[in-house]
Design goal:
This protein is an alpha+beta fold. Helices cover 49% and strands 18% of the residues. The chain has a four-stranded antiparallel sheet.
């Protein structure tokens, strides 16, 4: 059974959803040839309120600053963690050197080597207990913007009587606090 010519779809018809027209649409694509199929595939989309063309780009442009801020905060946190580890290691090494009987200047040299040149160190005694406190700011762009100071303290007992009676240290408090 053949349909009258007025019922056959044209090349610019978008087709309807009923079953009868769907079959005709398949026949018309074959009958219209490859040029009509090419035009149908690459035709322009409608613009208007029902079209979401470009919405992903706008959403990405809104979300990008938040993602970059989150990344910067994560990197600042990682930098703070690395700085804290360096300070703790420098304080431990300084306390070990102090317990062996080294003077405050050599302890500060050890701390300077391990913690960096911007760190400050203080050495103190309390009886036979010796302590080294090291402080430094967080590096990086956010560390320079936000004054974020980290501190590490190590305490140890004196291994020698001479270390407790070190003339460079004051009993009961801090002897030296100098930027390194």
């Amino acid at each position: 059974m053949s349909l009258p010519p007025a019922a056959l779809p044209r090349a610019d018809d978008r087709g309807s959803r009923c079953g009868r027209c769907r079959n005709q649409g398949v026949e018309s694509r074959v009958a219209l040839g490859p040029a009509a199929a090419f035009r149908r595939r690459f035709r322009r989309r409608r613009r208007g309120p029902g079209n979401a063309h470009g919405a992903v780009t706008a959403e990405f442009a809104v979300a990008l600053p938040a993602v970059l801020l989150l990344l910067a905060l994560l990197l600042a946190g990682a930098s703070a963690g690395v700085t804290q580890l360096r300070l703790e290691e420098a304080a431990r090494a300084g306390a070990r050197a102090l317990a062996r009987g080294e003077d405050a200047a050599s302890v500060q040299g050890i701390v300077r080597t391990l913690a960096g040149t911007s760190a400050t160190a203080s050495v103190g005694t309390e009886g036979e207990w010796l302590s080294v406190t090291v402080a430094d700011g967080v590096g990086g762009p956010l560390g320079a913007t936000v004054p974020w100071t980290l501190t590490a303290k190590a305490t140890t007992r004196s291994e020698t009587p001479a270390a407790a009676a070190n003339p460079g240290l004051e009993p009961g408090g801090t002897a030296d606090e100098a930027p390194l």
